Amino acid sequence: MTTTNQPRIRDLTRPAPKGLTVSVASHPATDLLLTLMALDWDDLTDYDLGQEWFDELRSKVSEPTRDALNATTQSHSKIWSGFFKLVDGGPEGESVDEFLARLETTGATEIRRTLVGSFVDPEKVDKATVEAAVTGDEASIEAVISCCAEVADLADDLRKLFSRNVEDGKRDLLKALRGFHTEAFAPIEAQFAGAIERDARAKQAMVATMSPERVIEEATNGITIEPGSGVRKVLLVPTAVLRPWVLILEDRETRIFVYPVADEHMTTDPDAPSPWILKTYKALSDEKRIRVLRRLAAGPASFQELVEHLDAAKSTVHHHLRVLRSARLVRVSLGADKEYSLRRGVVGEAAKALEEFVEAGASRDEGE
């Protein structure tokens, strides 16, 4: 999966209606899988953790673990995102060790069935064909692979998955996951798990007090769902690894947003300024981004209209929109066409938050 010159949304779905409901799930194992998915991507400079962080993590992976990873998936594999169904099948807040222990007791055929079902469109391949493919029927395997050919690299991922004996595949999978967790991910798991839990609690509180559409927009830094687009349920899952990207998946009628943990939940230092304040003022420090905000104040615009307005390269405009969305200044609607619009009032909120933070320091010093 490539990351260069793409909108900072990974939408792996089909086309949410009246009666939309939202739930939130906290799963630390999600970030283990997302780290594996991103580990060999070509360009990770647009991620908050940065290329060097992923390079350092990659250097900790032993040769036996790398061999098990290579035996399990292709490089740049999307398959890891398919494990989300297995993760979400566990209890809220399940640790990575607990998830791996549960995976150990899950049948090899069930694991494969879940992975394949995560990517196959039921309108193109029926359940019986998927089941036959999982149990080794060659014609059914080809039917499953063919229906996924339009998604870059996914057909190759599935072909490699089906090329393995199902029990051997499970053995190598567990070896890869346990090795990567022990060697690279475990030292950072507690930090990420705390941030994920704090953010999930905050979003669950929002679900109790806000409309589903507003919760989705707040969690995803500005993604909106147009009425009548087809999904009845939305599941929000926080990630610390993929910040500030949003990964969009689906499970039948459920749209899954793996969204970036909010800045304020990434630190517990009471003396640190809100990362959101810093991001907002950074976003406002660039002339072209100010021009985008001024254009959107006049009304929504497509990406191409913003490219023409700035008279800049698409990659440059993508970058500016990522920064603006990360600072919660811009929203993007997911409908037939993506459209960007201004989130009004955010600049004033940032100015107020900055003033309150500065004045709080003065009050504390006076108290001392």
Gist of the model:
The chain is α/β, with parallel strands linked by helices. The chain is built from 17 helices and eight strands.
Q: Can you put this structure into words, describing what you see?
A:
With 368 residues, this protein is α/β, with parallel strands linked by helices. Among the domains are: 30-187, no CATH class; 269-367, Arc Repressor Mutant, subunit A, CATH 1.10.10. It is 55% helix and 11% strand. It is built from 17 helices and 8 strands. The chain has helices at residues 28-38, 50-59, 63-72, 79-82, 84-88, 96-104, 108-119, 127-134, 138-147, 154-163, 166-209, 212-219, 275-283, 287-297, 303-310, 314-326, 346-367, and strands at residues 9-11, 21-24, 223-225, 233-239, 246-251, 254-260, 330-334, 339-342. β5 (246-251) and β6 (254-260) form a beta hairpin. The radius of gyration is 21 Å and the shape is globular. The relative contact order is 0.14.
Alpha-carbon Rg, integer: 21 Å
Strand neighbour order, sheet with most strands = 1-5-6-4-2
Give the helix/strand class.
alpha/beta
State the end-to-end distance: 54 Å
